Amino acid sequence: MSKEVARQFYRKTAWYKSVEEAKKKADAQGVKDWKALCNLKPPRLDEKLKTLISQMYMATANEMTSRRLFDTPKLTEVIEEFTAYTGEKP
User: Which of 4, 7, 61, 77 is most buried, by the most CB atoms less than 10 A from its CB?
Assistant: First the structure.
């Protein structure tokens, strides 16, 4: 399990584009702190996506331990819901 789902969300935002531009500008100017050159703040995660990410972690823990540590849907169900949320094909 990784933070890739959240990374994918942020890569589609204006903030991500601003970060990439700030990094390039900092590199070209020899500046170490690219964050000072970034004029946007990251947007908040959509609540539905936040819930799905949380469920992914909990369902993964349940699957890995073969125990029901968390009251959450099965991992396959969470993945199906995430796929429907993103509109991607399985």
Answer: 61
